[in-house]
């Protein structure tokens, strides 16, 4: 049965975001707990009139407080690069790598002393929690990349396919490389690995008595050039995989972002028999496909 691309595309969803997609508060709280003592020590600086000398005294007595400073500037990591009239330098905060006076200079020039001294904040624990929340929101892209994987995995499980069970008639294996697939099931996938020169990884492999399915998943809520590149690369992969005995390439994709790249997606739709969206999964494609 020939499928209609326009009808298929019309069923794409706006979002598949879960409650913890926007901010992973468990991660935020965990990161803050790891520096809670040091932040409380630095609270002594808030409103202090002689903040520079008080800071130097704190660093001399509790050098571990330095590890908090990058976070106060919304920086991940323990190094901060600075360029000024004297050139470029790296401040290290995972250990005392210079004098307390130099760290005090950093605090002054970066504006942190002003933030603390003039009561612009009242508690560093609260402030740092807010910074961590903001930084974690930047992780949405990474979490978003896994959301579609979670959706597909849930439908694999609903179809009665077990995870990593070599003894089951049907089993799925997350994140497998071509070399692993070839070694595990003695199948030649050189056509999709440029004769072994590239190492392709599939989001899932499903092994049934009759077939090995290589599955890719993604969801795009917004547009961009990456969508055209993805569609073209999967079109190439579909053509390369078409003549491999015992192997089927399957692509699950969705998201209103595809509206900006519909023509490239349609080209792939025309050559890839097994391209599906979430509506297809809701309608039971796992049961009819994975035999």
Please identify the top-level CATH class of the largest domain: Alpha Beta
Strand order of the biggest β-sheet? 3-4-5-6-7-8
Strand tally: 8
Beginning-to-end CA distance, first to last residue: 18 Å
Calculate the mean pLDDT score and round it: 93
Proportion of strand residues: 15-25%
| Structural domain count | 2
Helix content: 40-55%
- Give me the number of helical elements: 14
Description:
By secondary structure, the protein is of the alpha/beta class. It has two domains: 5-12 and 139-289, Trna Endonuclease, Chain: A, domain 1, CATH 3.40.1350; 35-137, no CATH class. Helices cover 45% and strands 16% of the residues. The chain has 14 helices and eight strands. The protein has a six-stranded mixed sheet, with helices on both faces. A two-stranded antiparallel ribbon has the order 1-2. Strand 6, helix 11 (225-241) and strand 7 (247-254) form a beta-alpha-beta unit. The two termini are 18 Å apart. The mean pLDDT is 93.
Notable characteristics:
single chain; 291 residues; alpha/beta; Trna Endonuclease, Chain: A, domain 1; six-stranded mixed β-sheet; two-stranded antiparallel sheet; 14 helices; 45% helix; 16% strand
């Amino acid at each position: 049965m020939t499928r209609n691309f326009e009808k298929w595309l019309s069923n794409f969803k706006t979002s598949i975001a879960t409650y913890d997609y926007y901010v992973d508060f468990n991660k935020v709280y965990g990161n803050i707990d790891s520096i809670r003592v040091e932040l409380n020590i630095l609270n002594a600086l808030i409103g202090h009139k002689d903040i520079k000398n008080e800071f130097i005294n704190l660093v001399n007595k509790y050098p571990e407080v330095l590890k908090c400073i990058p976070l106060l500037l919304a920086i991940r990591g323990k190094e901060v690069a600075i360029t000024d009239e004297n050139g470029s330098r790296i401040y290290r905060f995972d250990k005392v790598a210079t004098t307390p006076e130099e760290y005090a200079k950093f605090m002054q020039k970066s504006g942190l002393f002003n933030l603390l001294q003039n009561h612009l904040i009242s508690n560093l624990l609260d402030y740092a929690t807010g910074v961590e929340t903001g930084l974690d929101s930047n992780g949405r892209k990474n979490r978003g990349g896994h959301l579609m994987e979670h959706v597909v995995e849930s439908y694999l499980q609903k179809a009665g396919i077990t995870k990593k069970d070599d003894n089951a008639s049907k089993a799925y294996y997350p994140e497998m490389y071509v070399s692993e697939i070839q070694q595990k099931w003695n199948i030649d996938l050189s056509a999709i690995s440029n004769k072994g020169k590239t190492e392709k990884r599939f989001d899932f492999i499903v092994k049934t008595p009759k077939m090995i399915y290589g599955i890719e998943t993604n969801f795009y809520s917004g547009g961009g050039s990456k969508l055209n590149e993805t569609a073209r690369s999967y079109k190439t992969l579909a053509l390369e995989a078409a003549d491999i005995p015992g192997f089927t390439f399957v692509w699950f994709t969705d998201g209103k972002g595809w509206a900006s790249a519909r023509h490239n997606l349609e080209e792939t739709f025309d050559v890839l028999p097994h391209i599906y969206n979430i509506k297809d999964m809701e309608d039971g494609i796992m049961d009819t496909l994975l035999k």
